[in-house]
Structure formats: structure tokens, C-alpha cells
Request: fold
Amino acid sequence: MSNFRHYLAHFWKGTDKLLMLFCFLASGYGILAVYSATKRVTTNTLMGLPRDAAIMIFAVLVGMLIAIIISLVDYDILCRLWPVWAVAGIGLMILVLIIGQAVSSREDARTWINLGIIYFQPSELVKVFFIITFSVHLNAVKEQINNILQLGLLLAHAMVPFVLVHLSGDDGSALIFLIIAFVMLFVAGLDWKYIVGAVVLVAAAIPLLWMHMSEFQKQRFVVIVNPEAYPQTAYQQTLGLSAIANGGLFGRGLFHGTYTQSGSIPVAESDMIFTVICEELGLIGGLLAMAVLAAIIFRIIVDGNQSIFGPAQPLCYGIASMIGIQTLINIAMCLRIGPVIGITLPFFSAGGSSTLCLYVAIGIVLSVYRSNFNQTKETNFRLIGIRSPFNEELGSNVVYDKKKAVQKEKKQSKSQKQSDRQHSKTYYKNHKS
Reply:
């Protein structure tokens, strides 16, 4: 019994409680907003609750359990299994291309798989798989990241999920993959000449991209500056802005938003959940939601910066960028300073698969934190012998042998203490004489 209590105490100390608290607050806030957005406008219920709210509650509870389980597995084990995640990610997207379905709110994108109870969106899980494989790749070539050949391989790596998701019709999610890759490359030390070159190339390609857009896609951009030109296309964002303005500083009160409770805003529980928060809880409520998300992102970056071993830092930066990018795009959609591209607000928008996959990512961050806490402990699940085709360094024990690195640091510290002690004795003796 004492051993069990000791294990629980050790488990509790090794858990990033602050990150879990922020995630719990964000999810609770999101469930409340989704419930308010659907309670009067849907007849589809589950366990006495609107279906979207019930599924979100279930997804959060299961997601937190999954995150805790993942946190107990050393993150370098997950990284050594990168071939599994790569094959699984590609396989899932190919499956979507074969049997993928569209939902009523996104008829232009066949990116969901019908599991009966819920619609599963594989691209959400593939984001996590991509962050793991790209982190391993970055760590393997970190000294040669600005080498043309290695950078070309990294870009090719990023293009694989981008192309597959684009083919499924979800250009918004496809764009997320490229932005995540760019942020991770930037943090890893990509030379500024490549960054400037990429910006110039994208700017030059805009006319070409515009020519290949559908008429509806072009309208989504035009209504940002001229909503009167295409009122039907601007309809969702126009009502969303009206709801935000209706909320004022302190809001109309929970469950009392005029636009929200009448169901006027299309997909209010998902894409436009930020307008629900702002109408019913006001500008203060919207800022609070943004503050919680910012705290989550900041905490993930802190956890990454505290680790110096292997791909831990790019892992955390990749996950932080995923949450941050989706947050910025979703809020820009709601404020009509960006086009509607179907990106949800992390932790807040309805969606069982997106919530579960988000907590899978949080579990990896918790694993990094626990690994830092347990860095002198021996793991019983160490996998060896898996090498990267990008660099022999990944297959060696140099990157992942955390225990030896810490023991070396302790030995140096002990030697320094002995030297200081000897110096103090000599000084005392001379001073006394």
C-alpha cells in the first residue's frame, strides 16, 4: 500500500498540473458555450443534452484519460515509432479519399469517416502524427537544416500531408500543415535568406493561386473588404459580427444571446463559437477565452524549452503552433478579417474527433514534462535499434540517452563542489595562520 501511495505521489509530482488546469478550464468553458449554442435550436439529443454538447463532454473526459496514459510513456518511445505514425497517417488520408463523407455544414469537403456514433476527421489525428515525424526529422538533421538537400527533404516531408488533405477538399486544414512546418523550421534555426525567399515566392504565387481558385473561394476573400458584393457568402460572418456587437462589453448573459438562442448564426457551435462567447459573455468573455488559450500555448512552449533532449523541443513547438494557428484563423474568421475556411477554435468548438486528437497532443506535452521530471529514472519501455534514413545520429544513443547526460552533469557538479570545499579549507587555513 505504501508503494502505491509513493507511486501516486510521484505520478502527481511528475504531471504538469498547470497545463492540465488550463486545458480543463478551456474545455469546460467550451462545453458551456456549445451547450448554449445548441440547447434551443436542436432536437437531436443524447442523454438529455444536445448531441454536440454530450459528445463534447464524452470526448473531453476520454481525451483527458488518453492524455494521462500517453504521459506515462516516454516521448522518445513515441518518436522511435515514427515509421508507424507515418504509415498510419498516410493510410488514414488514403482511406478518406476512398470512403470519406461530407457533413451538412461542410459539403465542399469529404474529410469525415462515419463511425456510426460520431463522424471522425482523420486529418486532426494526422496533424499529431505529422508533428511527431517532422520533429524526428528535424532533430536528425538539426546541424544541417540549412543544407539545400536536407531542407528539400524537409519540405517534401511537409508536402505529403498537405497534398493528401488538399485532395480530400479541406484546403483550410491542408494550409495548417504547411504553417506548422514553417514554424517548426523557423524555431529549429532556418536561415533568414530562406524565410525571405519563401515570403517572396508566396507573394509572387498569389496571382497564380487566385486563378486556380473556385468562384466561391474567391468570394470568401472578396467579402472581407466588400461584404455587400456577395451578401450570401458574407451572411455567416455578417451575423457573427452582429452577435459580437450585440454582446457589448459584458454580454447579454449566458443562454440569453439574441442571435445565439434563435439559431441565426450558421454553425455557431463549431466554426463560429467565438461569436457565441462574445454575444453572451461580452468582450470580457472573449478576452478570457483568448487568455486561457494563450496560457496553454505559453505553458507548452515552457515545457519544450525545459527539455534539451532529442526532439522534445520541436514536438512542443509544433503542438503549440497547431493550437495557436487554429486560434488565430478561427478568431479572424469570426471578426471577418480572414476568410471562412472551416477551422475550429481549439478546446471550444464542438467536435468529438478534434477534441480527442487535441488531447492526444496534450498527452505528448505531458510526456515531455514527465520525462524532464524523471530524467534520472530508468524506463522499462525503451525501444532501441530504429534508425532514421535521414541521419545516423537518430539511431545512436547520443540523442536519447538522457540518464547518462544527467549523470555526467551530476559528476561535474560533484567535482566542482569538492574543488570549492578544498579551496575553502585552504583559504581558512591561510587566514588562520
Observations:
- The beta strands are 45-46, 49-50, 113-114, 119-120.
- The chain has one domain: 2-380.
